[in-house]
Design a protein that fits this description.
With about 130 residues, this protein is of the alpha/beta class. The chain contains four helices and five strands; from the N terminus they run E-H-E-H-E-H-E-E-H. A hairpin with a 5-residue loop joins strand 4 and strand 5.
Length: about 130
């Protein structure tokens, strides 16, 4: 029920994950995202957020997504892009897709497809250090 903006995370490295409930690779990755969120939820340096697009093709509605999260005991922040604007602005065409946003709120890097917790940690470290990952 709240409006969230990237500027709310100014000064932090932000791990942003776009996903869908019907995407098996996304679902496989959610435990790693939960672990990442648990590690950084009280951090002054890093934020972890995810976005879903309710009622988009193949996706359920907001209540269905909330039930999905509750059933799996997932507590990380899930933003509902009800208009699809964020998905369009970030050019999301495959799931999951993650972006690393640096402290200056610029896109630092992008990951397509499922990644491990270790990779998530590594790209956050590299973004914090200003090192481009390969």
């Amino acid at each position: 029920g709240e409006t969230v903006s990237l500027s709310d995370f100014e000064g932090k490295v932000v791990y942003v994950n776009f996903w869908a409930t019907w995407c098996t690779i996304c679902v496989d990755e959610l435990d790693a995202i939960q672990a990442l969120y648990d590690k950084y939820k009280d951090s002054d340096d890093v934020a972890v957020i995810t976005l879903v697009y309710p009622d988009s093709p193949k996706e359920t509605d907001m209540e269905g997504i909330q039930a999905f999260l509750k059933e799996r005991n997932l507590t990380f922040p899930v933003l509902f892009d009800t208009s699809g604007e964020a998905f369009m602005n970030y050019g999301i065409s495959a799931f999951p897709t993650s972006f690393l946003i640096d402290r200056d709120q610029s896109i630092y890097g992008q990951l397509s497809g499922g990644v491990s917790l270790e990779t998530m940690e590594d790209v956050i470290r590299q973004t914090k250090e200003g090192v481009r990952y390969k």
